[in-house]
Structure formats: structure tokens, C-alpha cells
């Protein structure tokens, strides 16, 4: 636990150095060092892309539709709801869909299990973890990872398969689950599998990752590489969209379809039950906001927009796995501040351990993608992927 806290503190500090909020001599020195490594990282990234582009390194062809959904920055672009709406639309148009996820911070096979496999089979090659086979939910969030588990819960007729090697996961989904369409979750940089289509997400609140590649900024590759995308989602937009950003992206990619969208809250749901509540419940309600996401400000702003009075805020590092004691401590502190409910995100809710206490209700906010522009183009894309035309309907 102490090691995890130190790791999260270091992550928070480095982010403050990157965004410039950490001031003084040493943060300035660290930014210079980061810039040097950023230049080296850029060289490595661009070399790798060219090796795949010129087929010096060959990607794998899996013999079915492969679509990647990803982004050029690290951190929260709101990717999971986009993957969800994309997979649901493909499934509703008759495709047998599997989402292939790396399963960030999911539980790996134990050393003991690996050694047993080595002794019995002569090699260590674990099969992919099937979170859902498109019929049943098979794993918990601890084993699957929070985002794959959330996708599997919300998409009961879509398979979700987790493995760092998504070539292996894709072959398994085709062979064992009968899938004919694969979605690479966070797959924009995953070049080992050939993509028919690339969908790139751009966060309107921080589109260019502070203008630098890792570690000086948050970019995984230069922003100009968005030219690989066939469809661009600008996420977290305000009601009037993001016209200036859209124009900037159009200059970088003249041919891609561009959709502006926002993450719209739909309802509240009990973290430990099935009861749902309308968003109107938040009006005038004193709440504690608890989250472990990349951009907690957006969640907290949404609560206030619906009339909630935030009396206590507790933020953890992105993907933090909550302990039972942390939840109990949160309940205690929330009660002392006069909170009438504890609110968290859906992504965080799947990582909440069960607690018996019910003196303060704990809800999460269900959020879905709402397109502000480009919806017709998006549906045309879906139809083309499914080899349909409007007349087929």
C-alpha cells in the first residue's frame, strides 16, 4: 500500500511538472531533462511508424474487419464511451463484434501459475482472458481491468477479450468466439495488427498534450500523425462544439470525417445495487465527489452543473484500485462534512470494494456519448463497415 501511494504521488508530481504548475529551480531543470528524452522518444516513435509503413516490419492480417479506436495523448479523452457506442452500433447492424483490450492494470497470472504451466507444457503462454463471450460476463473487474469490465457489463452481446498481445487475442476471438469484427481498444499505436479503419479521439480540453511528446508532454506521437485517422471524434465539447479545434484538425487531416461530441450524464445508479435515480436528485444535494480518473475536474463540474453542492472532494491517481479502508475513510470524512451522498464515476465504481455501511448512499453517474455534429457521417461509416447501404434497411 505504501509503495502504491508513493507511485501515485510521483505520478501527480510529474504531471504538475509537465503542465507547468510546479514552479522553482528543480521543476525547471526536470523539464529540460524531460525535453531531451522527449526528442529521443519522438525519434523512436517516428522510426517505428516508418518501419511498419514501408513493411520492413510487417503487421499481422487477421482476415476480418479490424477497427482501431485510440488517441494521440495519454490520459482521459473519454475513449471508453466512444468504444461502447461504436461496438453497439456495429452489433445492432448484424456484426459479431469483439473488443480487444490490453487490460490496463488488470491482474496478471501469478508466478506460481506460470511455473506450473512451464513444467506441464514446457512453455509459458496463457490464453487471452475472456471478460465476456458475448453471452455471459465471465470475469470480475480485478481480473479483467476496470474498462474492459465496464464495456462487458454495458455490452452484453459483444465479446470482450483481454491480452497484451492483441494478435493472439484477435485470433482467439475469431476462432473460438466466431467474431467477424474486431475493435482494438486504445489501438491507434498498435501497428502489429493491420487496421482497416482508424478512429482517433481528441480531447477538446487539452487537445495537444501540452505540445510535447512523452515525457515532457502527454503526446504519444506527433500531432501531425492524426492524418492516419479516417474518423476523428472531438470529445468533451461544450454545447456549441469546438469550431476552432475542428479547423486545426482539418488542416492536419483534410480527408477524415470529424464529429464533435460531449459526454452527457444520463442518470445516477447505486454502486452496490440496481436502483437508478434521475439527475434531478442532485439539485441542492450536498455531495462528496470521489474519483480516480485523469481529469477529475470534468466530473466535479458536471455534478455542480446539475445543482449539487460539493462539500468534500477526494481525488486519487488514474486507475487507482480502492481498498475497503479507503472507502470507509471516505464515508467517515463525507459524513463529517455533512454530505448526503457520495458520487463517483462509472469507471471508478467497478473498482469499489463492497462495504456493508449504508449510512451515506454511494452512487455513480452514468455517462454516454452525445454527438453534436457528424452523426450522419458516423452512421454512414457503420453501414460501410457492415457492407450495407441505406437501401439495405
UniProtKB/TrEMBL annotation:
Entry-linked Pfam families: LpxK
Catalytic activity: a lipid A disaccharide + ATP = a lipid IVA + ADP + H(+)
Molecular function in Gene Ontology: lipid-A 4'-kinase activity
SUPFAM superfamilies: P-loop containing nucleoside triphosphate hydrolases
Keyword line: ATP-binding, Kinase, Lipid A biosynthesis, Lipid biosynthesis, Lipid metabolism, Nucleotide-binding, Transferase
EC number annotated for this UniProt entry: 2.7.1.130
Pathway in which the depicted protein is active: Glycolipid biosynthesis; lipid IV(A) biosynthesis; lipid IV(A) from (3R)-3-hydroxytetradecanoyl-[acyl-carrier-protein] and UDP-N-acetyl-alpha-D-glucosamine: step 6/6
Binding site for ATP: 73-80
Enzyme class: transferase
Domain of life: Bacteria
Family according to the record: Belongs to the LpxK family.
PANTHER family: TETRAACYLDISACCHARIDE 4'-KINASE (PTHR42724), TETRAACYLDISACCHARIDE 4'-KINASE, MITOCHONDRIAL-RELATED (PTHR42724:SF1)
Function: Transfers the gamma-phosphate of ATP to the 4'-position of a tetraacyldisaccharide 1-phosphate intermediate (termed DS-1-P) to form tetraacyldisaccharide 1,4'-bis-phosphate (lipid IVA).
Entries under NCBIfam families matching the protein: lpxK
Protein name listed in UniProt: Tetraacyldisaccharide 4'-kinase
Classification lineage: Bacteria, Pseudomonadati, Kiritimatiellota, Kiritimatiellia, Kiritimatiellales
Amino acid at each position: 500500500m505504501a509503495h502504491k501511494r508513493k507511485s501515485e504521488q510521483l505520478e501527480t508530481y510529474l504531471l504538475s511538472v509537465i503542465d507547468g504548475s510546479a514552479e522553482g529551480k528543480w521543476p525547471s531543470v526536470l523539464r529540460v531533462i524531460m525535453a531531451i528524452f522527449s526528442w529521443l522518444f519522438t525519434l523512436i516513435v517516428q522510426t517505428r511508424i516508418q518501419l511498419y509503413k514501408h513493411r520492413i516490419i510487417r503487421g499481422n492480417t487477421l482476415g476480418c474487419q479490424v477497427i482501431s479506436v485510440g488517441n494521440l495523448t495519454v490520459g482521459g479523452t473519454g475513449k471508453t464511451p466512444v468504444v461502447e457506442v461504436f461496438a453497439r452500433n456495429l452489433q445492432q447492424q448484424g456484426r459479431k463484434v469483439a473488443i480487444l483490450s490490453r487490460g490496463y492494470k488488470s491482474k496478471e497470472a501469478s508466478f506460481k501459475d506460470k511455473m506450473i504451466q512451464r513444467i506441464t507444457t514446457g512453455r509459458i503462454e496463457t490464453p487471452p482472458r475472456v471478460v465476456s463471450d458475448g453471452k455471459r460476463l465471465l470475469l470480475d473487474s480485478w481480473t479483467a481491468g476496470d474498462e474492459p469490465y465496464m464495456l462487458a457489463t454495458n455490452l452484453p452481446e459483444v465479446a470482450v477479450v483481454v491480452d497484451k498481445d492483441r494478435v493472439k487475442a484477435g485470433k482467439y476471438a475469431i476462432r473460438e468466439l466466431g467474431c467477424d469484427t474486431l475493435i482494438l481498444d486504445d489501438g491507434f499505436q498498435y501497428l502489429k495488427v493491420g487496421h482497416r479503419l482508424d478512429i482517433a479521439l481528441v480531447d477538446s480540453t487539452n487537445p495537444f498534450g501540452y505540445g510535447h511528446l512523452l515525457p515532457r508532454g502527454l503526446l504519444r506521437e506527433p500531432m501531425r500523425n492524426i492524418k492516419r485517422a479516417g474518423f476523428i471524434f472531438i470529445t468533451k465539447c461544450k454545447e456549441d462544439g469546438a469550431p476552432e479545434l475542428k479547423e486545426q484538425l482539418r488542416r492536419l487531416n483534410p480527408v477524415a470525417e470529424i464529429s464533435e461530441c460531449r459526454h452527457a450524464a444520463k442518470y445516477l445508479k447505486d454502486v452496490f445495487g440496481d436502483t437508478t435515480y434521475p439527475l434531478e436528485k442532485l439539485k441542492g444535494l450536498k455531495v462528496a465527489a470521489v474519483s480516480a480518473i485523469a481529469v477529475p475536474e470534468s466530473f466535479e463540474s458536471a455534478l455542480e452543473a446539475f445543482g449539487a453542492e460539493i462539500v468534500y472532494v477526494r481525488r486519487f491517481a488514474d486507475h487507482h484500485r480502492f481498498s475497503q479502508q479507503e472507502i470507509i475513510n471516505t464515508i467517515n470524512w463525507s459524513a463529517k462534512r455533512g454530505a448526503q451522498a457520495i458520487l463517483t464515476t462509472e469507471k471508478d465504481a467497478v473498482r469499489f470494494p463492497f462495504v456493508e455501511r449504508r449510512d451515506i448512499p454511494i452512487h455513480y453517474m452514468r455517462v454516454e456519448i452525445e454527438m453534436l455534429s457528424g452523426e450522419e457521417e458516423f452512421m454512414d461509416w457503420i453501414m460501410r463497415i457492415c457492407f450495407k447501404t441505406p437501401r439495405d434497411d
